[in-house]
Amino acid sequence: MEFSEAIEFEHEDRKRIYEYVESHGEVDAADVRDRLHIDPGGFRHHVAILKRDGYLEERDGKLRASFDEGAAEEYDVDDFEFTIRPARQEDLSGIVGAIRRVAEQGSYIVAESVADEIDHDEALLRHNEIESRMFFVATVGDEVVGWVHLYAPELDKLSHTAELTVGVLADYRGHGVGSHLLERGLEWAASNGYEKVYQSVPSANDDAIAFLEEHGWETEAVRENHYRIDDDYVDEVMMAVEL
User: CA angle, 185 as apex, 25 and 111 as ends, to 5°?
Assistant: First the structure.
């Protein structure tokens, strides 16, 4: 299933099964069946159709929402090798850790709130009638060293916009990881019909502002004294790029 696809179900039980799995990230198939009180034969039939139609996938008896968002891309920059790929449910803790380490190194308030939200949630990726949430990760070996996150509410008046955060651990900067993550995120947004991507950063985060400006982002507005960081009031810089 791609995020650009409308979510439509021909049977109420299929809708219930998808919504339960999507909101829990990954769950034992038998637990879903028992929790929703669906008879075993009917449950197997509905799951088979949801898998056939690309809504769900099953691994080792566990169900998860299925997202087809492209392949992994391998990079070798000055003998530094890294991979950028769509995130998976099992990347959740690695992403939370990476975001919090980056946030500790500078002012990245929106990213901090993203880390808190997904750490509280059971599901990393979301695609339902209310919201869509997508992550791509940069990895070195098995370690998540960077991320790009896109969030979009499923509202008609905002359906053309998505919010983005991106970051790379300090030890892995200087090799183009952030640029490749940003490019992958914007490609995803454009292919899913979004026309503008935005994010807000504190004015004290000079590195983030310079990075976005280097990639064609522009400042749309500034909210004075919007943040309080270490007892100092700091402006919010609202930046965006047209796709």
Answer: 65
